Amino acid sequence: MSRISFTRATLQARKRIALVAHDHCKEFLLDWSERQRDKLARHHLLATGTTGLLLSRRLELPVESMISGPLGGDQQIGARIAERRVDMLVFFWDPFEPQPHDPDIKALLRVAAVWNIPVACNESSADYMLSSALLDQAHDYRIPDYTAYLDGRR
């Protein structure tokens, strides 16, 4: 049994979608984003450094960019998730290429799981996520209730 209790929160209709891609996957993310441009345009987009710059140019949409992933951008996105300022994560990662910042990547995926946000790790899962009826509507979901934990009521 978990020591953390849970509560409910509401994801708003306009989602904050983080877009991240490893170097070998950036072109896949750009192509996918272009196909999904109309859906993405209805939401707030944020990304790690280079990916954000490439996305904003390709889509001609505003994209809030963090710093480069290996320099801490993955951690910035993770912090936003923990602060409940990211609602969905699209992370095209390269399963064939070792990454020097692998611990940061694992931490990002872990915090996304802790905060129960939808995560897509490739084009197929991203297509399914963006085709969900929940994409453009507010809905409730379960999140950790850290107020009880901090109050010592675990």
From TrEMBL:
SMART domains cross-referenced by the UniProt entry: MGS
Record key words, sorted: Lyase
Domain MGS-like: 9-154
GO biological process, one term: methylglyoxal biosynthetic process
PROSITE patterns to which the protein is assigned, alphabetical: METHYLGLYOXAL_SYNTH (PS01335), MGS (PS51855)
Cross-referenced Gene3D superfamilies: Methylglyoxal synthase-like domain
Record-level GO cellular component terms: cytosol
Catalytic reaction annotation: dihydroxyacetone phosphate = methylglyoxal + phosphate
Active site: D74 (proton donor/acceptor)
Enzyme Commission code(s) on record: 4.2.3.3
Enzymatic class: lyase
Family to which this protein belongs: Belongs to the methylglyoxal synthase family.
Physiological role: Catalyzes the formation of methylglyoxal from dihydroxyacetone phosphate.
Designated name of the protein: Methylglyoxal synthase
